[in-house]
């Protein structure tokens, strides 16, 4: 089985648009029909690659080759962050600190062609993740220098051809490995493929990444035991491999893995690269076996490049500036990391005289680093710049990156399919949280306790009955509000990751979330009201009961909308929880139960309180206009004349329903706008 696009290219045997300029040469090895790309300027040896491909078993029949090869060039990339400017959502109210700038990257350059695997090496904090994020077009803020993809800047169409595996795995903890990969396949693979083909693709990835054993295990999270760290990482890689990206960027794909699995992952990356993809990975401590699989390396030290070029020439270069390991069998990666840390490894003693200006063991780390950076600028940078400039003159794969408006706006899947998949995924993921034992206990205990407290209260104690109705409106105002404020801040990393890959529209996500809320959030209030209504001795009429239930469910949706809006606006749980508790207290006081004679200048507060409308509606449906109650011994009074109820003014219930409708739509609209403004792209 093959996606239609790939079928076409495999017939020609050329993984991408090959034009008359003969920019790319395609070779087809006869025995296994593997296809690879040999860029014109690449120093790789065609025969050598062919041999390696003969050794590599043909895996992923449908992922054999890249559809549109991408040449990535980055020149003098620099990035500075303002340490005082980090913060939460689009309207974050965090205080600003004095401005402090940190230069994370300083003039990093390089060129990676289709078919090449570039490894970024450097000590922790040297800027590898930052550079990788910049190359994936996901770095917020201004990156100086130029980054081009086939000679063009980053675009939406490039976004969908780029696979990015972040250092921290962002996965839904309650989904199984199979579910995670099939949902990703449904969302990311084109409409041309059938549902079965997409599932088959996910199964292939599971096999390829050795995840068969844990196929049906939950992914888990730091607090929920699930997959091991290495397995989780492989699931993240699988999600990106699914779409057969032309440019694949991985942040430490081997960290935390045993050496055999790590080796296997790097071998897979190399195999993917040889299929015409451009692969860039950051890596800590590769073994020398792994190092040999890299085509290029970029070594960064505190944001400055100290080497950028062919992996096989690295030792030669450092020997030329006076750093040659004292013994023969050294892992080049260890040697490079020592140098990037400003530590001079054991070098040959007789070299001392040959390189008089070279810093040595006893010199401080900074002067060693400075020497390496200035050597890079003097010896490597000019030729690298020249290579980048030269390749600028050749139009590389002009068909590679489409810039037409229509292609930029194209989604791989339809709105409706995205909605269905996100809805079903949301239900699967959230059912654990919405129906957790703790939450059921919380609701049921309050329900039974309040039923017992108000046990068979009749109209004889009308004040108590009204109190129960008020309690309904407040409890089902607070509870959904506090649950909803978590929604967007918690899902933000996932939303950013998936939206950065162009997986779905924000509107689809938002609608799927809103519709998914209905079964998730309305079941518990229904049970609560059913239990407490009848225990509490409210009007024994089915119509009144159903109306009461509908009003409370309506109230739940409105308060949930407010919670979603607060979460989306602030994107900070602490701030959102504080603000919502203040708002809810104000609504509670302004609802008209506790205080009736409010000064006119603040009386308007009740009109913004959804609990006020809910309370009014509940009282309105509970008592009919001419209903009587015993207001004294043998004295009958009209319920509507009771001071507390009279004050509420239950005269126009349609207006109350309309006010809640405005809030229902308004809060959700506000949440959507806040999410849209808070999106990085
Ligand atoms: N948003 C940020 N706020 C503060 N500091 C940041 C931010 N982003 C990056 N940095 C700093 O920039 C430097 C480079 O970070 P980066 O994550 O790129 O390092 P790295 O090479 O990937 O490290 P590691 O190997 O540990 O993953 C670090 O010193 C880090 O603290
Ligand atoms: Mg990192």
TrEMBL record:
Gene Ontology cellular component annotations, sorted alphabetically: membrane
Annotated region described as Disordered, given as residue ranges: 1-20
Instruction: List the PROSITE patterns.
Output: ABC_TRANSPORTER_1, ABC_TRANSPORTER_2
Q: What is its main location?
A: membrane
Residue span, ABC transporter domain = 72-327
Which SUPFAM superfamilies has this protein been placed in?
Answer: P-loop containing nucleoside triphosphate hydrolases
Task: Please tell me whether the keyword Nucleus is annotated for this protein.
Answer: no
- Membrane topology of this protein: Multi-pass membrane protein
- Residue ranges annotated as coiled coil are none
What are the protein's UniProt keywords? Answer: ATP-binding, Membrane, Nucleotide-binding, Transmembrane, Transmembrane helix, Transport
- GO molecular-function annotation terms? ATP binding
Pfam families named among the record's database cross-references? ABC2_membrane, ABC2_membrane_7, ABC_tran
Which segments cross the bilayer? 468-489, 510-536, 542-569, 576-595, 657-675
Q: What subcellular compartments does it reside in?
A: Membrane
Q: Which PANTHER family match?
A: ABC TRANSPORTER G FAMILY MEMBER 21 (PTHR48041:SF24), ABC TRANSPORTER G FAMILY MEMBER 28 (PTHR48041)
- Name the family: Belongs to the ABC transporter superfamily. ABCG family. Eye pigment precursor importer (TC 3.A.1.204) subfamily.
Name the UniProt record assigns to this protein: ABC transporter domain-containing protein
Which source organism? Cinchona calisaya
């Amino acid at each position: 089985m093959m996606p239609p696009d790939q079928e076409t290219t495999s017939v020609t045997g050329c993984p991408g648009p090959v034009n008359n300029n003969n920019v790319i040469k395609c070779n087809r090895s006869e025995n296994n029909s593997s296809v690879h790309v040999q860029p014109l300027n690449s120093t790789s040896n065609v025969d050598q690659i062919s041999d390696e491909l003969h050794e590599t078993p043909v895996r992923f029949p449908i992922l054999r080759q890249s559809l549109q090869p991408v040449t990535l060039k980055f020149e003098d990339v620099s990035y500075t962050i303002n340490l005082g400017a980090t913060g939460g959502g689009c309207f974050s109210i965090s205080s600003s600190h004095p401005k402090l700038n940190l230069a994370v990257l300083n003039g990093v350059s390089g060129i990676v062609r289709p078919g090449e695997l570039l490894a970024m090496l450097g000590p922790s904090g040297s800027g590898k993740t930052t550079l990788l994020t910049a190359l994936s077009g996901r770095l917020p803020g201004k990156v100086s220098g130029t980054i081009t993809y086939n000679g063009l800047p980053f675009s939406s169409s490039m976004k969908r051809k780029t696979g990015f595996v972040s250092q921290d795995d962002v996965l839904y903890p309650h989904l199984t490995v199979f579910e995670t990969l099939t949902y990703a396949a449904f969302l990311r693979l084109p409409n041309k493929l059938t549902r079965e083909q997409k599932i088959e693709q996910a199964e292939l990835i599971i096999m390829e990444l050795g995840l068969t054993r844990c196929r049906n295990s939950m992914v888990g999270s730091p607090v929920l035991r699930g997959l091991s760290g290495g397995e989780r990482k492989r699931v993240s890689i699988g999600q990106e491999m699914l779409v057969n990206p032309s440019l694949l960027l991985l942040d430490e794909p081997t960290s935390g893995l045993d050496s055999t699995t790590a080796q296997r992952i790097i071998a897979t990356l190399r195999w993917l690269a040889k299929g015409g993809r451009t692969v860039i990975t950051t890596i800590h401590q590769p073994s020398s076996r792994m190092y040999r699989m890299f085509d290029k390396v970029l070594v960064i030290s505190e944001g400055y490049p100290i080497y950028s070029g062919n992996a096989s020439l690295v030792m030669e270069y450092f020997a030329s500036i006076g750093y040659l390991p004292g013994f023969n069998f050294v892992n080049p990666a260890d040697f490079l990391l020592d140098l990037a840390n400003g530590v001079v490894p054991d070098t040959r003693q007789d070299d001392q005289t040959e390189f008089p200006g070279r810093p040595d063991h006893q010199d401080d780390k900074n002067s060693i680093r400075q020497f390496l950076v200035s050597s890079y600028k003097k010896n490597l940078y000019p030729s690298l710049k020249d290579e980048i400039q030269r390749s600028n003159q050749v139009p590389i794969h002009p068909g590679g990156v489409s810039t037409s408006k229509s292609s930029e706006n194209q989604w791989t899947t339809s709105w409706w399919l995205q909605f269905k998949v996100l809805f079903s995924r949301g239900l699967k993921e959230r059912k654990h949280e919405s129906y957790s034992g703790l939450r059921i206990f919380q609701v049921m205990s309050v329900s039974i306790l309040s039923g017992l407290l108000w046990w068979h209260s009749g109209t004889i104690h009308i004040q108590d009955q009204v109190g129960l109705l008020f309690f309904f409106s407040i409890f089902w105002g607070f509870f959904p509000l506090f649950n909803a404020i978590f929604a967007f801040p918690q899902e933000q990393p996932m939303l950013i990751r998936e939206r950065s890959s162009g997986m779905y529209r924000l509107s689809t996500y938002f609608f799927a979330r809103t519709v998914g809320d209905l079964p998730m959030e309305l079941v518990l209030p229904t049970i609560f009201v059913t239990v407490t209504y009848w225990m509490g001795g409210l009007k024994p009429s089915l119509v009144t009961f159903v109306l009461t239930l509908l009003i409370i469910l309506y109230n739940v949706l409105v308060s949930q909308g407010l919670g979603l809006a607060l979460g989306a606006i602030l994107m900070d749980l602490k701030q959102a929880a504080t603000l919502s508790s203040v708002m809810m207290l104000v609504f509670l006081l302004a609802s008209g139960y506790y205080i009736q004679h409010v000064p006119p200048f603040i009386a308007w507060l009740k009109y913004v309180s959804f609990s006020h409308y809910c309370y009014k509606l509940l009282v309105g449906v509970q008592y009919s206009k001419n209903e009587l109650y015993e207001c004294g011994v043998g004295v009958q009074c009209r319920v509507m004349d009771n001071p507390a109820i009279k004050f509420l003014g239950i005269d126009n219930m349609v207006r109350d329903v309309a006010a809640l409708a405005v809030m229902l739509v308004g809060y959700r609209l506000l949440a959507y706008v806040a999410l849209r403004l808070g999106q990085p792209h």
